[in-house]
Each structure stands twice: as structure tokens, then as C-alpha cells.
Amino acid sequence: MLYQKLRSAIYQGLQKQVPVTGLAVFRIFFGLVIFQEIIFLYYFRSLIFDPTPNVEIASPTIHLFLLFWGIAALFLILGYRTRFAAGVNYFFWVIFTIFTPMWRNFDGGFDQLMISTGFLLLFLPTERGLSLDNLRAKLSFSTPKNHYTPPQTTSVLSYYLPLAISIGLVYLDSDIHKLFAPQWQNGLGVWVPAIMPYYISAINMNWLLNFEGLQKLISHSIVIFEFIFIFICYFRIFRVPILIYGSALHLGIIFTLNIYPFGFAMLAYYCLMVPFAWWRNIKTWLQFGNPKLTVLYDQNCPLCNRTAIMIHHFDGLNGVSFKGLQDHRGLYPQVSKFTEMELLKDLYSMDSHGKVYSGMDTYIQIFKAMKYIAPLGWMMSIPGIYHLGKWVYRKVADNRTRITCDKQCSLSLSTSDKSNGFIDELYARHAGTGQKQATRIAKFLILILLLQLNSSIHYGVFYRLNIKTTEEIGQLVSQISNQILTLSNAFLGITPHAFYLHDHFQGYNHILALTYIDKVGKEHWLPFINQEGRLLAPNWGRVQSMWANVAITPHINAYRFHKFISKVTAFWGPRIGADLQDSIFIIKAKNVEIPLDHWEKDLRNKNIAQPWVDIGKVIWSYQVMEIKLNPEINIESL
């Protein structure tokens, strides 16, 4: 049976252990994407969450929630209480997409990807590498005679499952929709959004867009790549080609289009495609062959042991070597002149030239030997700072008595309990044997596959083929399918991936912009859309999606037009001096050409160069907005 084969393959994957470095780098990279998005949400909180910025204010608890969310993202990056931080992140991403306009009106194009990944981060052992949780474990479980080393490997499934679920199924579903899109059939799928002023980045890629054959080759290769990814990403022979092509694909999105958060989020996954040997080679290449500094410490002192463990944890370059004084003193004649009490009272070190340092000077040399925090060592050497630091060091060192250390030498180095947290204990208690884990993972994968098929067949096949049924049973099945998709969308991030297809660009032959008339009659472009028609930084990602995908479309909806004109002018107007008690903005429009069936040279630059015409005014009076369009303009017919 297929189920038995799947379960067997999963069990084999659980048994195969691989380095955790790539998974840890993925956690850090993805955490940075989350953190920048929270900063973005906080900066645009008034535009996104207020009904009318600076006029009708949303609940201030949103600001507090964003702060908590940001702290959780930082914890995730640092690997501190990692599983708990992942849970908080998942909770906030689900809550914000369900209950705020963040997704409905300001869809960044990757919310469902972030929900899907956030859910998987609850279960992936990303804390095993490059994390403060590793340091906590070392401090909790080490003794003066035995320094604990946390697990440095993980199951290969920790790499394969995220690639299959969050990337492979996304690519496959997106590919189904592309097969029905004329621009992708004609090899223009990459070229079309790159000639639309609303979608292009500040980097002029026109030189690349002018190679018709290359554009068609890239478009057709993307269709093939997205289809085969989920079937070949597990094989070692394909890892490097997939890594190169996939990274180039998403770097191209980052450089060409202004939806960089989506590009970076997808790019983060390619950390999981880096061959395991590469991570080992990178580590070997970065580390020093021989430590630059040797530190002698009191093996029977918990404080000294904690210091050694902490510095060794952060010394990724292997610049510092710690040696127990009791076991290694005889190997270093440079310190033989010191009495035992002198050696136990201070932290002594020797550099590669045999020069001896002690106390505060040892810490300065440690920071310099670690290289990446050498500036801290230089700063501590500054007169004044050095003397203050030396005074603080003496206070701590002189109060550390041998009697206290001797009493604690048989204890753990941490006075806290050895618990790794509630979530970790729950995993440990219910993880079960390898066979049980394989069964659970197999059932989960089948569930995810069925939910994805529901989305892909419903919207990628039936909807695209315009298959409808008038029979009662067919309508009932359709309603059930929609309800299932609603739940899987909200909590697992499963959604149709029909981005930038013909049904969005067809008839999109106009774009709008806004300017402000100051008190002396001078016209100023809002820091929103410039004279070229490009959305300016930081109005990318969600804000670009709001304007280009919701407010201004091939067939403009009057209600949405009024709503988002109000939001944009109320948000950006006061930032350039407009008073919402009495101010006037100009609505400008220009024509653009977005062909779906043929390629045209220099069309990006031609669209940018099109002239603007004034089509109406936005009048704010006593914080009430009114739009007055020219008599010949019907906004819904644009």
C-alpha cells in the first residue's frame, strides 16, 4: 500500500541524522523576515489598522500586540525559548490575518506562507543550532567536571517536510493556475508584471526585459521548475541545481518587483537546500586552525565554569581555548611563578606569543580573539572605561570565595530548574517511539495533501475550466469544499496561489497617483507614487498590494476607491504638511499598456514615460473627505 510505503520512508528519514546548521540558519533568516514585517506593520499601523488615519483611530491594543509579536520574533531569531516564541508568532499571525485588515485589504502576498511556516516551526527542532536555548541547556546540565554538549543533529525530515509542505505544494498549486494563464502560455509570465509601473522596483531591469527569447525561456523554465520541485528536492544530485535556480528565481523577484518580503520569505527556504557538507566546510573555513588565546580557569568554581561555557558558546571562530587550571597548569610554565591562590583569584590567559594577561585584561583579549566582537574589546581598553571595568571586575572576583565555590562544586552550574519549558516537556512526553512518530507524520502529510487537493482542484481546475453544477449534491460539495478551505487557509496557510495572472492584468490599462497643493498653490507629489508611476519605498509589500490589487484595478470599485484614497491622503498628507481641516489633493491618471499575448521592446520605459492628466480632486474639510472627479470621468469605467 502507498500508505505503508510512505510510513516506511518517513521512518527511515527519522533514523537518518544530519547537521542542524542549515535548519538553524533557516530559523534566523525566517525570523528576520518576520521581524522586518512587524516593523513594517508598526510603521504603517495607522494606514493599515485605523479606519481613517489620523481621524478614526483603531484600538491602541494593536500597538501593544505588535510589540509582543516583535519580542517573540526576536526570541525566535536568537533561539531563546524557541518553541514558545514560535507559538506566539503563529498565534499572532493567525489572529492578525483573521481579525484585522492586514490580510483582507493589505495582503502582502505571503501571509499564508508565513502561517504555514509558523505552524511547522512549532515542531521543528530549530533551537538545536545557533541558539540561546543551547546555551541554557549547557548551563543547566553541565557540572564542573563535565560540560554538557546538546544534540547537534536532527532528522533529515526536519529539512524535507518544510520544503515539501510550504514550498513544494505552493509551487505545484501555483503551476496549475499558470497553465490556464495566457501570458504564461505565451512565455510572458515573468515579463508582464515587470513592465507595470505599480509593480517594478527602483532597479531598472529594462536591459534584461529587452531580451525576448531570454524572458520566454525564464518563464517556461519556471513552469517546469515549479512542477518538478516537490518530486526531486529530496535527492542529493538535485540539491545544488535546485539551490542555484531557486535562489536566482527569488533574488530576481527581490530585484525586479517591489514585493521583497515575499521574495525573502521564499529565499529563506533555500537555506534548507544547501548541502550538509557545505555547512561543515564553511564552519571549518571560518574557524581558526589554532586558538589565538588560551584561558586558564578554576575547574572547581561554578562561576568560572559558567564563564567558560558562555564564552565558548559564542566563540564561533574558535579563537579562545579554555583549559582547567587544576589539570593543565603544569603545561604552561608562563604561569608557574604565580601561587595557586593568585591563579584561583583571577582569570589568567596567554596569547599565541606567550604573553600573560589576568583579570580585566583577560576579558579584553577574549573579545579581541573572538574577532566579531573585537570592537567591544577596543572600547574596554579606553582609559576611564578600562578603569571602571577593572573596579567592577575586582568587586566580583574578590567576593568569589573558595569556600562558596567548594560548596557548590558538586551542584549544577544553573540554580534554575532543568526544565526546557512546557512545550518541550509536552513533546518529550508524547513523542512516542520512532514507529509512532512515523505514523503520526504520515497521517499529517496525508491530511495536508487532501486539504491542498481540495484547494487546487476547486480553484485551480474547476474554477479555471468554469465547471459548474446545478445539481443539489454538486452545490453541497462545493459549499463543503469552501468551508474546508476557509479553515485550512486560516490555520494552515493553504490557499490558491494565483498570483499576477491574466484575470488580474487583463484590461489594466491605467494607473492613478496623488499630489498635494500647498497653501501657496505649489504642487507636491505624495511620498507614495512618483512621476514614473512607481510606488516609493517604504510603500512596498502590503501597501503596494492594497493600492495595486485592491484600490486600483482594471475595474475600479467606487467604494474601495473612496476608502483607500481616504486612507492614503490621511496617512501621507499630514507627513508633508497637509492639514486635514482644509487641504486639497489632485488625482492624476495615465495610460499604460500591459499585453498578455505579445512581447514589445522597451515597454517598461514607455509605460513610465506616459504623461499624467488630472482627473479630479480630493478635498479635506474639517476631517471629512470629498472626491470631485472631472465631469467626463466615470471612475468605474476607467
Automatic annotation (TrEMBL):
The chain crosses the membrane at residues 20-45, 57-77, 84-103, 156-172, 184-205, 217-235, 242-260, 444-463. Signal peptide: none annotated. It is a multi-pass membrane protein. One of its GO terms (cellular component) is endomembrane system. It holds the Pfam family DCC1-like. It comes from the Bacteria. It is found in: Endomembrane system. GO terms for molecular function: protein-disulfide reductase activity. Keywords: Membrane, Transmembrane, Transmembrane helix. Residues 15-278 form the HTTM-like domain. InterPro entries: DCC1-like (IPR007263), HTTM-like (IPR011020), Sporulation_signal_mat (IPR052964). PANTHER family: HTTM DOMAIN-CONTAINING PROTEIN (PTHR39535:SF2), SPORULATION-DELAYING PROTEIN SDPB (PTHR39535). This is Putative thiol-disulfide oxidoreductase DCC. It comes from Candidatus Nitrosacidococcus tergens.
